[in-house]
């Protein structure tokens, strides 16, 4: 234990040297308390918490005893003005047979419905907070004005409601919504606040891809959790300041799920909705599948892959052709460790006829964008509750960056290693989709050459992105390990 404490102390001192202690938003006396009075137990806890991301808790295999739940599609209340009502609620959910778990949800007790938009829609949403604590409604990946984005400035108190309006101007994609209150995002998502958004457009309707929702077009929200001995989501007991990771996987809120499919092409819309866990998805047979979309839209061409990795908040759409797979043996989606995430049961029936077109989009990174100089530098650094961006913790009164509306700029994001080597940070920018120019000077892999709003950045990696904001206002940028976000690994860009 003594060795661990010494190493932790060195790591902490290096963090201070690296810029954590220069946080302008934190009073000097608080900094002294954080560092100077830290006892050996606290330092050891920090060390253990950080080490847990080097040896991540394994997931229990799905037994496949429960058919996967499919989120309901929220009905429009007024076809002309496209009104939805979304309520943040507290409830009880039977995740385990015979036991009610206290949970949060949208328009129900756990998770939320799917909202479907079409490009060009003028959308009006009534948001209502029926929780006993403040929350926000953040539309992750949606290009909207900052005053409806749902960042920490837009908190609704218990009982409050707000009507937001926006026009859908972006292309077909799979987005999601979740809370974003200052310091409470991780716990509220952990308790169940998350829902899906589908955007469709004329292009998506013409491609001939699988589109039968819940049949051959399946959303998959992956979230790992730890349940206590009473089968409750006890966040305070499970919490890890470096990112809370659990041993039990829920997909769409389903414990031990399986998915029954026909012998046809099936589109899986993967969302890493976990607080901190990364997933590398693959088939247990070693067969390949096709990725067709990134966070914010279709790839130009389908990409054949045997695995795809998503960090928290990233999405990917893949197509698995179950008519071409050997289904005599067990078939399942697994992760990098071989844990069974989602067993498939393939029926004898042939399904709908769909196709994977050779051309799906006209996404491009222009020569002009490639030649733009770096005008924004973002440095991610630290661990546990000592995480910073550019040496500072989040201050709602401080603007960190400014950018002109409609002007493309190049941001360089650097994940600075710490004494322990550092960890992957998923980096998310609100209110815009961006293009990846390079990773450490190299072209991004084929399956990342599409619109993105979140990006995985490894320790000591530098990523350049081209980003343009369509709307004015103040937007967040942050690490999407939710505990890091809550601990201040977040900044603000003002679009003027």
UniProtKB/TrEMBL annotation:
Start and end residues of each Plastocyanin-like domain: 89-203, 223-326, 370-496
CDD domains cross-referenced by the UniProt entry: CuRO_1_CueO_FtsP, CuRO_2_CueO_FtsP, CuRO_3_CueO_FtsP
Keyword terms, alphabetized: Metal-binding, Oxidoreductase, Signal
Pfam families, per the entry: Cu-oxidase, Cu-oxidase_2, Cu-oxidase_3
Signal peptide residue numbers: 1-22
Xref: PROSITE patterns: MULTICOPPER_OXIDASE2 (PS00080), PROKAR_LIPOPROTEIN (PS51257)
Protein family according to the UniProt entry: Belongs to the multicopper oxidase family.
PANTHER family: BILIRUBIN OXIDASE, CUPREDOXIN SUPERFAMILY PROTEIN
Protein name per Swiss-Prot or TrEMBL: Multicopper oxidase family protein
Organism in which the protein naturally occurs: Sporosarcina soli
